[in-house]
Amino acid sequence: MIWTDFLYHPFWALLSALLAFVVRRQRRGAWDPRVCSVQLKGKTAIVTGANTGIGKFIALDFARRGARVIIACRNLSSLDSVKEFAERILEEEKALHILVNNAGVSGLPRQITKDGFEVSFATNHLGPFLLTMLLLDLMKRSAPARIVTLSSVNHWRGRVDFSHFHGDNITYFMDNVYNHTKLHNVICTNELARRLQGTGVTANSVHPGVVMTEVMRHYPLIIRCLFNIIGFFFFKSAEEGAVSSIYCAVAEETEGITGKYFDSDCSLALPAPLARDAALAVKDFEICERLTSKL
Ligand SMILES: NC(=O)c1ccc[n+]([C@@H]2O[C@H](COP(=O)([O-])OP(=O)(O)OC[C@H]3O[C@@H](n4cnc5c(N)ncnc54)[C@H](OP(=O)(O)O)[C@@H]3O)[C@@H](O)[C@H]2O)c1
């Protein structure tokens, strides 16, 4: 017997199966939307990017609770398109109680939109930022109302450099750009919450977990294969990934909570230090306001 035989011992297969079983059991958080009896009859909700992935299950949950659900698909990276959509909502809807900024993209190559923004920043941050700002008065009039923005635990690896918005000084490697955009999500949501104090509109950001969706569609085939193989055993399903967002948007437990970051198991979590810097938040928010209002 040589020592490498040890590596082929059935013990390892058993251990992997046991580990996969334990992780699967733990993927379900403490809060279960199926036993939450909150009804949304008479309420209106918008979920962006709800044609697939996590957003689809968020929208389905709201619809099951009786909400009128508007799913906002394509194109958040075009600010004209965001404006058109918001104008239509303001014309046609009398109230808006829930806005879930879910749409997002990762791994896109460098591209500058016709508005002059880096495409991932436009899609993940500036588009949802503008949409939220345009719908804010309607939400205030509809209060109590909730805004939920899907960020990611990856925001911990993001950096703030305002030249990124225009595609400058960015290193395109793996999920770098995505991480920066997800950090801006948390920073601006916190500042929005501060500005909304006393209005009855709350704003929080969430991490959905590592979720088996199409989020890796822009990565090389080998990375997608690895993601899917590992994900099959260990990652959340899209339905499970929707839970923390649904918790923020509808649960009685989160009523009145604002300016917080929720983890994928629905617990409150501390965001990265940059996302707790109040002065940076004011600056970031003002820059995003200026960039999006110019157009
Ligand atoms: N999956 C994860 O592990 C994970 C982890 C942390 C955070 N998140 C966040 O969760 C959110 C949902 O992601 P997912 O995992 O469900 O990914 P997904 O399956 O790729 O779904 C993303 C959604 O965003 C939409 N979208 C992309 N670009 C858009 C644009 N320019 N305009 C409008 N909609 C656009 C997509 O629409 P099309 O189908 O038309 O492209 C799709 O509906 C994202 O914000 C993501 O950053 C996901």
Automatic annotation (TrEMBL):
Keywords assigned by UniProt, alphabetized: Oxidoreductase, Signal
Pfam families according to UniProt: adh_short (PF00106)
Residues spanning the signal sequence: 1-25
Recorded GO MF terms: oxidoreductase activity
SUPFAM superfamilies linked to this entry: NAD(P)-binding Rossmann-fold domains
InterPro entries: NAD(P)-bd_dom_sf, SDR_fam
Protein family: Belongs to the short-chain dehydrogenases/reductases (SDR) family.
Protein's UniProt name: Retinol dehydrogenase 11
